[in-house]
Amino acid sequence: MLGFLSIGVFIDGGYYAKINRALKARDRSIIRVSSLFEYITSELAMQEGLDISDCQITEAHYFRGRFRVKEAYDKHLLYNERKFEDTLIENDVVFHYKHLREVERDGQTEVLEKGVDVWFALEAYELATFRKFDYVVLITGDADHQMLVRKLKALKIKTVLITWNLSEVDSTSHMLRDEVGQHWELSMIVDNNPQLRKMLLYKLREPAVNPLGDNF
Predict the structure, then answer these.
(1) pTM
(2) What is the secondary structure of 38-53 as a DSSP string?
């Protein structure tokens, strides 16, 4: 049993946004960041036999591509982006952004997000090395992070993968899921725990407004 539990949380912003879009479309809800963090600390404290006050998320990081200011303004995204950033700031989440790029291919506009996954992995590994987290929690479904998990395990850091699958086809990489120490599939967990669902989700009031923006 550990005397104090230090947790690092790393959020794949693209994946997190997909979850919120699906939740909004299905039941007009989005994830409450503060409640998600509370759930993480309470669950790990219980597993390690610790008081929740001795189990802390010591760092949390969010990685995402976003448009330059003029493009965001033209797409009416500035308010939505700032509102979501306020939520991250209120929960002491450090955000990391790279600019998105739009290219025309076959008459279609394609949005490119380059380098964010690599940055995510490098930052997570570097911080885990220096901060010596007891647990690293990854919120993602990307197979590219399989090697990150393997490297973290080599440092003897326990890993938790959090996913929330809301489609008929499981979007979580099987390789990633098999590599992590624990996998928490929240869609299944909350189905068996209505109180947890109520705690984790924030019910939207405005019928026509997406607080994360159409491109989030």
Answers:
(1) 0.87
(2) HHHHHHHHHHHT--GG
Calculate Rg over the CA atoms of the chain: 18
> What amino acid occupies position 1?
M
Tokens standing for 170?
């499981």
Domain ranges of the chain: 7-203
Enumerate residue ranges in the chain where pLDDT < 50.
1, 169, 208-216
* pLDDT of res. 216: 39
Encoding tokens for residue 139?
A: 């919120």
Q: What is the CATH number of domain 7-203?
A: 3.40.50.1010
- Specify the residue for token string 């890993």: 159
Predicted local confidence at residue 144, as pLDDT: 85
DSSP string, 55-120: EEEEEEEEEEEE--HHHHHHTT-HHHHHHHHHHHHHTTEEEEEEE-EEEEETTEEEEE--SHHHHH
